[in-house]
Design brief:
By secondary structure, this protein is mostly helical. It is built from twelve helices and no strands. The chain has two domains: 73 residues, no CATH class; 230 residues, MetI-like (MetI-like fold). The termini are close together.
């Protein structure tokens, strides 16, 4: 198993290096001014702009700038924002909790809903219940999150007034009432995310379980007199969990990148909103840092999925 993990790491590290090169080069040759708002500020003279470019190392050749940035990145230093002059790591840490709270809550809810609904749909395959669940799943992943978000805002915020449609960035959780207010303002974005993710996961769970039910080991277990719940819980779910668990691991990075739209709709001060705001301001250090974090999540969770798959199915690593 250790050799299998080492082989996966030998693939992941060069991949991250290649991604870092692509991110840096694309942003370096982009037709935007890396000084951001400082480049258009009329109160700053050309001499001051030139001194700023020199102090930030923007006059160095691109290859030198890349290795400086990579070395700082290895040390955990993302640099400083061109606009706020704050460390990029501080800006990310300020926005990360909101993203983790909304995405984590929505994904946990979607898993808790998808597993029983997908299992029930597979067991009742071909029945009216299966048709109803499958129809709801198709509707769920056919509707884009921005449309679902706006629809829920119109119904539950504008018409009924039950929930706020703007996520408060100034709310500080200090007691039970403030925590309940945090939950209240998170309900709509969590519902949007859970609706979309539940539909995707549910169809995958249904397909995985439906593929296992006709297998010979299920017929053998029935012939031995095992109960239906025991066959399903011990044998079927164990084998069907291999592709499902792998999908869960691969799906987590897409949630962070997919939260861009969700955070814009509900004005959530998260990582996605930070990235969009930094792109609009041409704040290159922040854009590079957030983009690399997204890429790092994809590579790390792909590595985790490979290792997990090899652990669940020894034939993968032995092959």
């Amino acid at each position: 198993m250790l050799k299998y993990v080492c082989r996966r790491l030998l693939v992941a590290i060069p991949t991250l290096l290649a991604i870092s090169v692509v991110i840096f080069v694309l942003l370096a040759i982009a037709p935007t001014n890396p000084l951001g708002e400082l480049a258009t500020n009329p109160s700053i003279t050309p001499e001051v702009r030139e001194n700023l470019r020199r102090s930030l190392g923007l006059d160095d050749p691109i290859i030198i700038r890349y290795f400086k940035w990579l070395w700082a990145l290895i040390q955990g230093n993302f640099g400083y924002s061109f606009n706020s002059r704050s460390p990029v790591s501080e800006l990310i840490l300020q926005r990360l909790p909101a993203t983790l709270w909304v995405i984590g809550s929505g994904y946990l809810l979607s898993v808790l809903l998808a597993l029983p609904l997908g299992t029930l749909s597979a067991i009742k395959k071909g029945t009216a219940l299966d048709w109803l669940i499958s129809t709801l799943a198709f509707v769920g992943f056919s509707l884009p999150t921005f449309f679902t978000g706006l629809l829920l805002i119109l119904i539950f915020s504008v018409q009924l007034g039950w929930f706020p449609f703007i996520y408060s960035s100034t709310l500080v959780v200090s007691d039970w009432s403030s925590f309940l207010e945090l939950v209240r303002q998170s309900i709509l974005p969590v519902m949007v995310l859970a609706l979309f993710q539940t539909a995707i996961l549910m169809r995958f769970v249904r397909a995985a379980i439906a593929e296992e039910l006709p297998q010979g080991y299920v017929r053998t277990a029935r012939a031995k007199g095992l109960s239906r719940s025991r066959i399903l819980g011990i044998h079927v779910l164990r084998n069907a969990s291999i592709p499902v668990v792998t999908l869960l691991a691969l799906d987590i990075p897409s949630l962070f990148t997919g939260s861009l739209v969700l955070e814009q709709v509900f004005r959530i001060p998260g990582m996605g909103a930070l990235l969009i705001d930094s792109i609009n301001r041409s704040d290159t250090p922040v854009v590079m840092a957030v983009s690399f974090i997204y890429a790092l999540l994809v590579v790390v969770f792909n590595l985790f999925a490979d290792v997990l798959y090899g652990w669940l199915d020894p034939r993968v690593r032995l092959g």
